[in-house]
Amino acid sequence: MGRSPCCSKVGLKRGAWTALEDKILTAYIKVHGEGQWKNLPKRAGLKRCGKSCRLRWMNYLRPEIKRGNISLDEEDLIVRLHNLLGNRWSLIAGRLPGRTDNEIKNYWNTTLRKKAVSPVIYSIPLKTNYTHSQAKSRAKKSKSTVSRCAAKSTPFPATVTRPHVTRAKPTAYGSGNIVPSSSEKAQAQPWPNLELPLFHGSHSGLGEEFLDGVDAFMTRGDGTFNGNTTELVRTSEAMPGSWNADYGFITNGIDDLDMDSLTYLLDSEDW
DNA sequence: AACATGTGCAACCGCCGAGGC
DNA sequence: CGCCTCGGCGGTTGCACATGT
Q: Which residue intervals define the domain HTH myb-type in the entry (predicted)?
C-alpha cells in the first residue's frame, strides 16, 4: 500500500491476506515454528515475501493475541508507558500480554494521542478575551484539526507543541536502582505547587478549560475543590506526570531517566 | 439517497542493529 | 574491519466502514 514495493519481488502477492493464506501460514508455523522468514514463503507455498508473513503472524495469527477492545486498565498502562518510553511500541507491547506493537501504535495514533495533546492545544496564546462558551467552541475546533492530523499522520500545525521523548535505543537491559532526585520527586507530585487562579462557579467536568485572554487554564483534579471553588492549572505548564481523566497523561517528557532505572521501574510491582 | 468527512486498522516501507563471514 | 543478510521496529498509507450533512 502507498509506496512502491520494497524488494521489487515481482510476482509476489500484496495486500490483504485471504483465509486460505492464513491457514497455510498457521499450519506451517505450527509444524516448523517461527523464524527463517525469508525461506518460509517458498517452503510453505505462499506467494508472499518473508516480511509480510512475519508481520501477518506477529500481528494477527499468533494464538496468544488478545482480541477485543483495549480495557481501561490497558489504556492507562499504555499512556503511562508511552510517557516513559515514547514511541517504543514493541517495548510497550511487551508489558501488555496479548497485545501487539502494531495494535498499540494504532490505538495511540487514533485514540490516545488526541487526548494527550489536547491540553497543549488549549494553551495557544490568545489575543482576545473569550467567554466560556466561546472558549469551548474554539477548543472543539482545535480538537477537530488534531483529530485529522492524528488519523492521517500528517505534521501537526506549527502552533501545537507535540509531546516528545527522545531516547537512545538501548541494546541491552539490566537491573539497577532508581533513586528519584529531588526534581524527580517534585515531578512525581500530582500537581505542582504553583500560584494559580481559582475558578468560582460551576463547571461541567474535570479538566475543563478556561481562557483568560493570556493563558489557558484547566480545572484541577476532580472539580470539587473547596465547594464551589475549583483550582485552575495553566495548561501551558504541562504538569509532568499527572493524569487527567479527560485528556490522559500530561507530559513534557522525562528525558533524564536512564534505561536501567526505567527497566527497574517497569519491573517493579508499582506497574 | 447521495455525497462528504471522519475513523479504525491491516499492511507496507525504509531504516537500523545484530550476527555471520 | 567491512560487507552482507536477516529480523525487528516505527512511521506511514490506503481501504473499508461509520457517521454527518
A: 9-61, 62-116
